[in-house]
Amino acid sequence: MAVTARNFVGSYFEKDRLITVQYPEERNPLPENYRNFPFLPYDGDDPEAGLRCVACKICEKECPPQCIYIVKSEDKKPDYMDKPQFYPKVFNIDISVCMSCQICVEVCPFEAIKMDKVFELSRRERFDALLLRKSDLAKPNEYYHSICPTDAAEVDAKLAEAAAKKKPAAPAAPAAAPPASAA
Question: Which fold has domain 46-151?
Fold first, then answer.
């Protein structure tokens, strides 16, 4: 009974235990590992060229509620590293079905899909507004750094390391000709 009384009294007078927040004027900070709905980070300035997704469709196959829909392009275009890649011609996520399980993030080998912290996605329309298209899902890598700085730094380091491994070694300098002997 003493524990209950201490918790009851403490919830009114201890600043860190006050639970009422005057939402939306005040907001509790979200933890870094909070997740809601997926988004597609892109590198560079152009969301089409910098999109990391290569339309491998692994996330679409692994999604338990099957809310991801991808159509792979027929042609290749250069990505942010000027390497020709397939790209998603269509990339849609139905957020009315998505259960925010994060399986799509875990199975993606290209770090092309991440979980967002935006949770205020209510819409007046019931159907079309709940389907997020590629243009709605694409967000810059700087945005990812602002919501998950620790994870984003790890991902960028891993991608930079992979890019350095794929880059061919600089050609060796030609050997200097031996000096002509004076005869």
Answer: Alpha-Beta Plaits (3.30.70)
